C-alpha cells in the first residue's frame, strides 16, 4: 500500500478535526488548510512515524559509514569530541535520493504537507524520549569525567547533562543538529515547493525561497566542521533546549516561510523574485565571507592579508585546565567593521527568503522575527563568554571595534 493509500485509508469522516496538541492546531490554522482532517492519534500515525524514522536512520547511517574523522575542540575537562566529516556529500546524496523517491511517488509532497502536523507530533515524542534517555545516561553512564554541580531535575532535563554524549557510536549533537534538523529543513522546503506547485501551479517566488535556503544549507554542510567550534556545541549541553530545538523547532519554524506559501501562493512578480534572489545571494556571500575571514585568519595564526592589507589583531590569553593559551582577535576586514556582521548578513538573508510571502501580513516573516531575537540574544551570550575567557583583551577589542551588528547604530 502506497503512502497516499495509507493516508486515504486512515482518514476519517470529512470535517472531523482532532488535533493532537495546541501547537499542531495553531500550525494548521496559521499556514495550512484549515479544513484539513486530522483523525488519528499521536502514536498510531504510521505515515509520520515512517518519515521521521527514515530520516533518523538515514542520518545515523551517514555517521556510521567509514569516512574522515574530525576532532572538535578539547573541553576544559580534557575531552576531545570526534565527529564524521562527510556533511557536504551527505546533503547531496540525501537530496538526490529524496528527489528520486518523489519522482516515483508523486503524491508524496502534498501528502506530507497535509500531514505535516503529525510529523511534528512524532518529532515531539522522539525529542522527549531522547532527552529522557540523555538525562538518565548523563547521570548513570556519562561519556567523560566532568563533574557537574547538582541542579533541579527539570532544569537538568532542559539544559542537558553532557556536552558531548554519544549514542550508538555517534555524537548526539551532530546527529540532532546537523544531520536530522538541517536535513529535515532542506527536504521540507523542497517538499513544500513541490506541494505548492501541485496545488497552485509553478511559482517562481516560491522557487527562489527554496533556492536561497538550499544554497544556505549547502554552505552550512560545506563548513560543518566549523560548526563544532560554536556556542551550540562547546557551551550548550545535549538537553531538551537544543535537542527539541533541532528535532522540532527547526523543522517547523525554520521552514515556516516555505510551508506558508503552499496555502498562500506568492503574490510577488517575476522581477520581484529576481530582486529577492539577488538580495539573498549577496547576503549569503557576505555572511560566508565574514565567517571565512575569521577561519582564514585563525588557520594562518594571524599571518595573512585581508582586503589587501596585513591582518591586524588584539593579542589575547586565556586559561584552561592544561595551562595558559594564546589567541588573537581580528580587528581588520569585516571583523574591524563590527563584531557580529555575520549575524547582520544572516538576518538580511532570512528576510530575503521570507519576502516571497509579501502581501500576507506578518506571518510569512515569523522566522525573520524569531531570528532577530535569537541573534541579538546570541550576541550577548557570545560576548559574555568571550569577556569571561579573554578579560582585558576582550575590552580592548571592543574599544577598537565598538559596534556589534550595525556600524554607527548597534
Ligand atoms: N540561522 C540560525 O539560527 C543561526 C545561524 N548562525 C550562523 O552561524 C554562523 C556561526 O555563528 P556563531 O557560531 O554564532 O558565531 P561566530 O562565528 O561569530 O563566532 C563567535 C566566536 O568567534 C570568536 N571570535 C569573536 N570575535 C573574534 C575576532 N574578532 N577574531 C577572532 N575570533 C573571534 C569567539 O570564539 P573563540 O572562543 O574561538 O575566540 C566567539 O565566541 C554565522 O554565519 C551565523 O550567522 C548562528 C546562530 C543562529
Ligand atoms: C527552542 C528555541 C527557542 C531555540 C532554538 C535552539 C536551536 C534549534 C537553534 C539555536 C542556534 C541555532 C543554529 C545555530 C547556528 C547554525 C549555523 C547555520 O549555518 C545553520 C543553522 C544553525 C545550525 C542553527 C540551527 C538551530 C539552532 C541550533
UniProtKB/TrEMBL annotation:
It catalyses: cholesterol + NADP(+) = 7-dehydrocholesterol + NADPH + H(+); 7-dehydrodesmosterol + NADPH + H(+) = desmosterol + NADP(+). Its EC number is 1.3.1.21. PROSITE patterns: STEROL_REDUCT_2 (PS01018). Pathway: Steroid biosynthesis; cholesterol biosynthesis. GO terms for molecular function: 7-dehydrocholesterol reductase activity. It is a multi-pass membrane protein. This is 7-dehydrocholesterol reductase. It comes from Petrolisthes cinctipes (Flat porcelain crab).
